[in-house]
Specification:
The chain has 149 residues and is of the alpha+beta class. It is 39% helix and 20% strand. It contains 7 helices and 8 strands. α5 links the parallel β6 and β7. α5 packs parallel to α7 and α6 packs antiparallel against α7.
């Protein structure tokens, strides 16, 4: 009998607590459109998806402020493509929460796009998701992610 949670032994998986159905922006969207979508969804990051809906990157509210607003770039015309850099750090939906927290701490990130075996985006995992499900582990993660050493 299944209880509704996908677990590995007694371990909670990312799939159990991630935010499902993450909305994407495209490289052709403007930074203003991305910021408006973040506001409307009350999120601090959005995955960037290509035409095939495969993950192509991630844009954060901080990216928009530091790379666009602070530099005087017009967010109404600047596209995501101009500011998308590097390959995003991801986690598998079937990985354990411990693994995800380790990845967050190692890479000093608070959000991770979640992919399936075919590399399709299936959700997002944020520190807040962990906090809602395991406050003690979340506190430890915050300390590890925020550690500047």
């Amino acid at each position: 009998m299944t209880t509704g949670n996908t677990t590995t032994g007694n371990m909670t998986t990312v799939r159990d607590i991630m935010t499902k159905d993450a909305e994407c922006v495209t490289v052709d969207d403007t930074l203003q459109a991305a910021a408006q979508r973040m506001r409307d969804l009350d999120v601090g990051a959005l995955p960037i998806c290509g035409p095939d809906q495969k993950l192509a990157g991630i844009v954060t509210d901080r990216d928009i402020v530091v790379q666009c607003v602070a530099e005087g770039v017009d967010a109404r015309s600047a596209t995501i493509e101009r500011f998308a850099t590097g390959k995003p750090i991801t986690i598998s939906a079937d990985d354990t929460i411990e693994s995800a927290l380790g990845t967050m701490a190692e890479n000093q990130v608070r959000r991770l796009p979640v992919i399936d075996r075919d590399k399709n985006l299936v959700g997002m995992l944020a520190q807040a998701d962990v906090a809602l499900n395991d406050p003690q582990r979340s506190g430890e993660a915050v300390a590890a992610i925020s550690d500047d050493s």
